[in-house]
Amino acid sequence: MAGFRPPRLTTFQTIILLFAAVILGGSLLLMLPFSARSGTVTPFNQALFTATSAVCVTGLVVQDTATHWSWFGQAVILSLIQIGGMGVITVAAFFSLLSGRKISLMQRGTMQEAIAAPKVGGIVRLTGFIIKASLCIEALGAVCMLPVFVRDYGLRGIWMAVFHSVSAFCNAGFDLLGTPDAKYASLTSYRADPIVNLTIMALIVVGGIGFLTWDDIRTNKLRFHRYRMQSKVILSTTALLILLPAVWFFFGEFSTLPAGERVLASLFQSVTPRTAGFNTADLTALTGVGQGLTILLMLIGGSPGSTAGGMKTTTFAVLFANALAVFRRQSEPHFFGRRIDNKVVNSAATIGMLYLTLFLGGGFIISAVEGLPLSDCLFETASAVGTVGLSLGLTPTLGLLSQAILIALMFIGRVGGLTLIYAALSGFSKAGSRLPQERITVG
Predict the structure, then answer these.
(1) What is the value of pTM for the model shown?
(2) Count of Cβ atoms closer than 10 Å to residue 86 Cβ
(3) At a CB cut-off of 8 Å and minimum separation 6, what does 424 contact?
């Protein structure tokens, strides 16, 4: 029709559609016969689940990555992990820069939202830094693990070192260590190996603290007092969320292990739920408290503008600081001598409630449909919505409806609940008037 113009997409709609397009394209590639070791077509639901898990850097799988997928299939999964970890928008912008194309103001705005940058200015420079730094860190991680994997797997160890480095840095949790007799093994065979443990943990933490935090560290070096307040909150919260749970795991879960192995297992189990998905310990052997603590860490996740998912460390920190402010009868929460805007507190409360609703709602439905214990189902839904990938072994056995629920949770967890809400409500204008106020008692 003459004069017809397609509706202009908002920034949030663009991000969602690009993520969905990459997932669909990855699903079709994984369905090709030569993507599977057996040379047969992988069912669409399994390919879609795997592609969603890879792009959303989760790590939940319905087929063992090492034994089901061929070299080509594994390469597709690794490419999807890399795109999902860095961000679809970031990767697309990088290729535009390489081709010499100019980045429009609208595209810069989309890039800003994609990496949670505070302003549009300098966004192209920051994007270039993110890509270069990511590739260098992944290469360094692969080099560190190369001697171990080459020792154990020969030349195939080169591919395994690269795959696990990218998977760890992008907080994906996919591994190639399963065998026909021991599928979904993750890193359990390397529980006592300090090189693999320390390298994987370092990659997870570096990938999960956020690109803006890197930029702060690069600019201000070790001068902590000059960091942005957000970077200070992220680094402080991350340190506490690693050290405190590690103490519990050391004394409460792994007391029977030798001393060195016990330290590595405790630290690893504290780091990996936020939000990598590797495991060196048998998760089903954890106590109820250990599994509950793991669920909490999975829901919190990593930091904004990072490769990690979850409700984010800053959301948790703001809610905690707001609770302290209420206890102290202060009007506003604050960090490091700076107060927090009430709009940020409202957003944090909304995000927290959204994740809690998705986590509980998904767990209730899966438990009812599959007839499985609610606690086990909640572990899987926390892993999905937090884009973690840890599992008690239920995911491969679930039916189509339950798998669809996990796919939706992984997608929402990666693109962000508020992003989806803003995209869906983009046509609604803000109210121009305020309703009368009335007091309501809470607590």
Answers:
(1) 0.89
(2) 24
(3) none
Unique residue bearing structure tokens 């792994």: 254
Structure tokens, 109: 């705005």
Q: Which of 352, 246, 356 is nearest to 290 (CA)?
A: 246
E-strand stretches of 54-149: none
User: What are the tokens at 305?
Assistant: 């503008």
Alpha-carbon 15 to chain mean position:
16
Instruction: Round to whole Å and give the CA distance between 24 and 173.
Output: 21
Mean pLDDT by 10 residues, the chain (443 residues): 58 78 95 94 95 92 94 96 78 60 62 62 73 91 96 95 95 91 90 95 92 86 89 94 95 91 95 90 92 95 85 92 90 88 89 93 96 95 94 93 95 76 58 74 73
DSSP per residue, 75-134: HHHHHHHHHHHH-HHHHHHHHHHHTTPPPPHHHHHHHHHHTT-S-STTHHHHHHHHHHHH
**How far is residue 276's CA from residue 122's CA, in Å, rounded to a whole number?**
30
Token reading at 418: 């508020």
